[in-house]
Amino acid sequence: MLASSAALGALGWQRLALAQKVTAPAVPLPLPATLPTASNSKAASPASPSVSSTSIALTPAQSRSFRAWMTRIIAAQLTAGPTPRWQQRDCVGLVRFAVAESLREHDEKWKRANGMLGTALPPEIELDKGTQSVRHQWRLADGSVSAYVSAIEMVQENARFRGKDCNLAAPGDLLFYDQGDAQHLMVWMNSYIAYHTGTVTPADNGLRAVKLRDLQAWRDTRWHPTQDNPNFAGVYRLNFLSA
Hints:
By secondary structure, the chain is of the alpha+beta class. The chain is built from 7 helices and 10 strands. A hairpin with a 5-residue loop joins strand 3 (138-139) and strand 4 (145-146). Helix 2 (60-80) packs across helix 3 (91-103). It is globular. This is DUF1175 family protein. InterPro entries: DUF1175 (IPR009558).
């Protein structure tokens, strides 16, 4: 993902008061926050040749259910705080976690553990066990498959470019930034954008939500999701989604 603290210092990134941290994702509350920062966490398990998520082809109905689950799970992290089951907490870790949780079976035990029992939830995606088994498997640049994938490999190997116009984004699509030595992912949530800064402290879980108009107004123009920003690589869609 993004670079080391030394690299961040060299880039001269500033602390902004325009980023937004959420207590209710539908109405993000402005709080001081740092710009997205790096995480160089290693793979939890070694890469191995296998069937990757790039070979999954969800139907349009399954794709719509997946989008609803992915955004619902991310919204839950924003409102209630990160679940202990989400261990690699950075921008791409948020995506990996939300994808894995979306593609699993959401039985009563899962709903109770995640505080969603008795709440309105999306329809189940209804995947077979073989398809569910690849939810932790991502294609790496060397063609192997791993439970861990970096931000740049997420978009280069596991997603397809949609364009640099945010009007093309659908819920669950990824906004990718390339700052040279550092890369960063955000998730399009329809009415707002969610991301993890890559930094966690006792007082700050690193999760943020920001409205598009506020992100476009940041003083550091490298983070503007606009067509004229060379640091904004564009909107990407996960390969297994057909709709």
